[in-house]
Description:
Layout: H1 2-19, E1 23-34, E2 40-51, E3 54-67, E4 70-79, E5 83-93, H2 94-100, H3 104-113, E6 125-134, E7 148-158, E8 161-174
Antiparallel strand pairs: 1-8, 2-3, 3-6, 4-5, 4-7, 7-8
Amino acid sequence: MFRTTTVLLLICFILTKEAGARTVLKFTNAKCESFNKSWAVINECRLRAFKRNLVGLNINITLLHPAHDIKLAIVFLKRANGYKPFVLNTTLNACEYILKKNNPVANLVYPLFRDFSNINHTCPYVGDQILKNFYTRTELFRVIFPNGDYVVLLSWILRNIKTFTTDVYFTVMTT
C-alpha cells in the first residue's frame, strides 16, 4: 500500500511539473481534540482569513511532558457523498522522520509547513508546539489533486496512546 501511494504521488508530481497547472488550496475548517489533557493541552486551533482566497491555519498545542516516541496516523479523505478514503492511510514515526527524512510522502508535505512551525528539531518535544499563519504557497504545492473538498485526519500517538487529533479540512481548485 505504501509503495502504491508513493508511486501515485510521484506520478501526480511529474504531471504537475509538465502541465504547469496552478493548484490553489484553501483551508475551510480545523478541529483539534485532546484525549489526555494531562499530556497535551490545545491552546488554539483555528483559521484566520488574510484575504478572500487566502486563509491561514493556526495550531498551538502544549505538550506537558517530554515526548520521545511520537507516531502520526494520517488518513486522507475526499468528499464524494460523504468523505471517502483517497490515496493515503498510513502511520509515520515522526521522531525518526525528523532525524532521517526517510519518508517520500512526508517529504512532499513537510516543506509546506516547515517555515511556519517550530516543529523542526529531533525528539523529545515538550512545551508549545506551534503552527502559525500557515498557508500553502503555490510554488511549493507541487502535487496536483482533482478539484474538490478534502480532509486530513491526523492522530498523534504518544507512547503508543492516541493523545490528540488535528483534522484539517480544505478545498483544492486547479486553475
